[in-house]
Write a structure and sequence with these properties.
Number of helices: 6
Helix content: 40-55%
CATH architecture of the largest domain: 2-Layer Sandwich
Strand content: 15-25%
CATH superfamily of the largest domain: Band 7 domain
Order of helices and strands: HEEEEEEEHHHEHH
Shape: rod-shaped
Number of strands: 8
Strand order of the largest sheet: 3-2-5
Distance between the termini: 181 Å
Number of domains: 4
Length: 293
């Protein structure tokens, strides 16, 4: 019985040695490199069971090829208008070329360090071409966050893939902060920009008001001129009609016309409190004594 057990253990040990010594497993979402005496001889990036020679001839190195999240932390950079800002960004990346990744880097921790360095250089290069207003402004047309993120992506993704076999899928700005020494100057700049907008609006309002006042004055002058012309025309017609009436009255009865004219003149010349000293025979008072001809 002991002999059978020994043989059983020997067979089991041989099977285990063969299983672990001559095969390896690739899991879903990972890639494995088969190395022979340290040199990469094959890449397996599909899940399954693969054959190999036992150690120390062959070795297997596996890498996680799923998407990885990396926070860059707070890094300080300088804008085109000489403002120090602190940007926090994040990257979503994955290993797309395991062979290059293995030969150039070899570990996930080192890859994160290289990516942070690449991103820091990209921030310095990109933000040097933009003013602070591209990130913070009361004018929505000045905000260029999407454009900045696209440039960061362009400067980082190509180098990461070429140098390290890493694909960068996303780079986005997560947070913007300002050094304490710059906060007041930024607020002053924002107030100045807002005051500039207020002054522009006031100037445009004054201009529009002046135009409206000029139009209203011109319209009023036109209406007054038309009214005066119409009034003058009416006065002229009235005078003409009066003259015609007087001429008609005179032609019909000259004595009565003269009498009425004298009475009208007398009525207009004196009032209740008027005292006149003059010859009674003079016109128009002669009519009172019958001496007016």
């Amino acid at each position: 019985m002991n002999r059978i057990a020994k043989w059983g253990f020997a067979v089991l040990f041989a099977l285990l040695l063969g299983w672990f010594g001559f095969t390896y497993t690739v899991r879903e979402g990972s890639a494995s490199l088969l190395t022979r005496f340290g040199r990469v001889v094959s890449l397996s990036d599909e899940a399954g069971l693969y054959a190999k020679l036992p150690w120390p001839i062959d070795g297997v190195v596996s890498y996680d090829t799923r998407g990885q999240y990396l926070d860059s932390g707070l890094t300080e950079t300088l804008t085109r208008d000489k403002k120090n800002i602190i940007l926090q960004t994040y990257i979503v990346w994955s290993i797309s070329d395991p062979v290059r990744f293995h030969t150039r880097i070899g570990s996930m921790e080192m890859a994160q360090g290289y990516l942070i360095d690449l991103l820091a250089n990209a921030k310095n290069g990109v933000m040097g071409g933009y003013n602070l207003s591209a990130l913070v402004s009361t004018n929505a047309d000045e905000i260029k966050v999407d454009e900045i993120e696209a440039e960061l992506m362009g400067m980082t993704a190509g180098r990461a893939l070429e140098n390290y076999g890493i694909s960068v899928h996303t780079i986005q700005i997560e947070r913007l902060a300002l050094p304490t020494a710059n906060i007041e100057s930024v607020f002053q700049q924002m107030r100045a920009d807002r005051q500039k907008n207020v002054s522009q609006l006031l100037s445009e309002g004054e201009r529009d008001a002046s135009i409206l006042r000029s139009q209203a004055d011109a319209e009023a002058a036109r209406i007054i001129a038309e009214g005066q012309a119409e009034a003058a025309s009416i006065d002229a017609d009235t005078e003409k009609q009066s003259a015609e009436i007087y001429a008609s009255a005179y032609s019909k009865n000259p004595e009565l016309f003269v009498l009425l004219k004298n009475l009208t003149a007398l009525e207009n010349a004196v009032s209740r409190d008027t005292v006149l000293v003059m010859d009674a025979d003079e016109s128009p008072f002669g009519v009172l004594f019958g001496s007016e001809e």
